[in-house]
What we know:
The protein is of the alpha+beta class. It has one domain (about 5-130): Gcn5-related N-acetyltransferase (GNAT) (Aminopeptidase), CATH 3.40.630. Helix content is about 30%, strand content about 20%. The chain contains five helices and five strands. It has helices spanning about 5-10, 20-30, 40-50, 95-105, 120-125, and strands spanning about 10-15, 50-60, 65-70, 75-85, 115. Helix 2 packs across helix 3 (about 40-50). The radius of gyration is 15 Å and the shape is globular.
Amino acid sequence: MNDEETTGQRYEISDDPARLDTARVHHWLSTDAYWALGRTREHQERMIAGSLNFGAYERTSGEQTGYARVITDRASFAWICDVYVDPAARGHGLGRRLVAAVRDELAPLGVRRFLLATKDAHGVYAKLGFTPLDEPDMWMALQTG
């Protein structure tokens, strides 16, 4: 049995907002995720409320072991962000399974463009077909803070 099969048996992915352990998600991101260090709980709660959220849960205990947040119109575009896997569960494809679950839920709705940004996990997402932007000079950003 390979890691993907083992991971599939050990963890389940859900977008049920009632299952999210928001305190755990906030702790993970605000203390261990380079892009969210110091994020306040109130800010995290607003982000969760305005997004489609996915959790990865151990099947036996129900404990949350991973998280992914998606900003989407559920019709054409999705920005995948805040992908995080508990350090004890890393190395078995769970992050990839989370992102695949996002893709698999939204693609049938017509979402054709999925974006994400990463400093250090290009290889994880490349296995799902993500590539660098073909024309990055077409994209612009406004950062106000």
